[in-house]
TrEMBL record, chain A:
Binds 1 zinc ion per subunit. Keywords: Metal-binding, Prenyltransferase, Repeat, Transferase, Zinc. This is Geranylgeranyl transferase type-2 subunit beta. Residues 10-309 form the Prenyltransferase alpha-alpha toroid domain. SUPFAM superfamilies: Terpenoid cyclases/Protein prenyltransferases (SSF48239). It comes from Hydnum rufescens UP504.
TrEMBL record, chain B:
It comes from Hydnum rufescens UP504. Keywords: Prenyltransferase, Repeat, Transferase. It is an enzyme of class 2 (transferase). One of its GO terms (molecular function) is Rab geranylgeranyltransferase activity. It comes from the Eukaryota. It catalyses: geranylgeranyl diphosphate + L-cysteinyl-[protein] = S-geranylgeranyl-L-cysteinyl-[protein] + diphosphate. Belongs to the protein prenyltransferase subunit alpha family. This is Geranylgeranyl transferase type-2 subunit alpha. Catalyzes the transfer of a geranyl-geranyl moiety from geranyl-geranyl pyrophosphate to cysteines occuring in specific C-terminal amino acid sequences. Pfam families: PPTA. GO terms for biological process: prenylation.
Amino acid sequence: MGSKELATLVHVSYIQSLGKATDDLAYHLTAHLRLNAIYWGLMALCVMKHKDALDRGEMIEFVMSCWDDEAGGFGAHPDHDAHIVPTLSAIQILHILDAPDQVDVPRIVSYVISLQNSSGSFSGDQFGETDTRFTYCAVSILSLLGKLDTLDEQKTIGYLRKCRNFDGGFGNTEGAESHAAQVFVCVATLAILDRLDEVDQDMLGWWLAERQLPNGGLNGRPEKLEDVCYSFWVLSSLSILKRVHWIDANSLISFILSAQESMASDLEGGGIADRPGDTADVFHTVFGAAGLSLLGYPDLDDLDPVYCMPSRLIESLGLKKDWVALGRRTL
Amino acid sequence: MAYVGQRANARNYRERKEKELAKIKSYNALSDRVLAKKHFGDYSIEALDLTTDLLAINPEFYTIWNYRRHIFLNGVFPKSNPAEIHARLKDDLEFTLRALKQHPKVYWIWNHRRWCLEHIPVAHDARPEAQGGAERDGLDWQRQSWARELFVVEKMMDADPRNFHAWNYRRYVLASLPPDPPSGDSPSSGPSLALHRTPASELAFTTKKIEANFSNFSAWHQRSKVYAATGQMADASIRDAGQLNSPLFLDLNSSFVNQAMYTDPNDQSAWIYHRWLISQNPDPAVIHREIQIIQDLLAEEPDSKWCLESLEDGSVKTEVTKILQRLIDIDPKRKERYHDLGLELATATTATTTNQHLST
Ligand SMILES: [Zn+2]
């Protein structure tokens, strides 16, 4: 495949094929990520302007079948335990499909609130692993449900402050090294809470700009390899800090496009991999496409970098924050 | 020939697919069986053993880790004495260690180890033979487990010195250690169970990691955390005792960071750390000396982006414009940032000049 353009139609059929791959062992071994994967696939389709390529009714039905009535949240798959990450995926999917009224808002709110610890951190589930990813999930869920007033903001922000490091970035717990994905979740959380004053924006902008490597790709930490998914984690953070132009867009676009799966065999094909030559997956497909959207790649839909949702939808919910992506180019 | 090759490929593909379908069938059968037992609240040893089989195949199946812990809490532990609970948890630590060696980045495995450690019981039986030594305070099982954990995680870090799961886990272990044994009360055999690390030994740990590889940013990061912690200590005790101004001077007054900068001037790890270190020590004499060191390096390596970047951050304004132009030339990917810094500088200069005009 030529790597100069985004092979939108091939990627659309790749995403359509994912739900039918039941004769692949990997499909069954990743059941614990199913709801997250549906969100990634659907979001990739939204960015590529093919939202209707998956069946709306089937998706809603599947989401609702993942409800864990004992816990009051969503698991990633029917009969799997509730966890805050698939709970966010469920709410994102239902919002994108314009079916937000399906969920039991009071129960989800109390589930989310129950996961906050006295330190201000959030656990992912009943057994208490903490991570700033879960803080983001909690704040994003409450914001999308219009229930941010139930959150102890002081405590939440206090914990994020403790996760801030000497390089301006954030880690996944107090004491942890800065990592671009954790930077995204912390910066986006602070953006939702209108508290970007907690970020050393010049310092962090510098650290983020230094994620770009000579081949155009971005890494997630100093002296690590490039990876397509960091296109989203780094660019979304930079968009929120209004410094996305600190990255060289052309070489990053080429890098993402070169990670598109080649169609050497007619059995496979489509999707974007973590880096050129590797096997594509839906996770890198959505974050590659999302990165391209923030870089103004032609003929893509606008993506809200704070919520990782369609920009128009977030605007219509009245939740849009003051971020800046690169202008949409024309072909 | 090509035709034969294609047929062979097609046959290989079919054979592979048949094997895969058989695997899928047995995996799904096992998964369904375990989930059914979970559904009916089966907390038997048989159920426990089935979760072992399933997690050995798929350690990311978080629901099954949860179920396993529920089996322990609701089925196994209530019927066990502390020694039996201890044995069960030791088995699980061995089981997850095997899993970690294959999957060093799976959150759920690390997470289950934490849970095991946090449930190691206090030994009610304080007879010497029950605890392999002298009569003690009942915490030796915990001490032994946490000591082994520290050993295990540091081994994992030898295998991958940038594994952030391992670094995080090590910080967690160090913060969660049981109290050291009462002084003078040491076990008759085996390693010391005084596990707590001093800031000095922790600093030495990061030095060792950095010297093994100057690019290990995880270790530089940890070093900043050690200083942040000793900084607080310095406020309370060391400074009052009048011994040291600030432990941060240690790094600046040793040539440690400079040595890293000289070893590979293109490696950003030491430079990011250096910038932070300088910002913590706004002593003009120190800054002057550091600028001199970087200028010497720049003379040897005229295209060193990081030398210029550091000088840009610490230099007098008239020099900065020149430095920024040079950075745009040698590091064009970030030219917009250098451009913005130049604009900022111009605005700041104009503002200062305007203020001077206004005040005269
Ligand atoms: Zn990735």
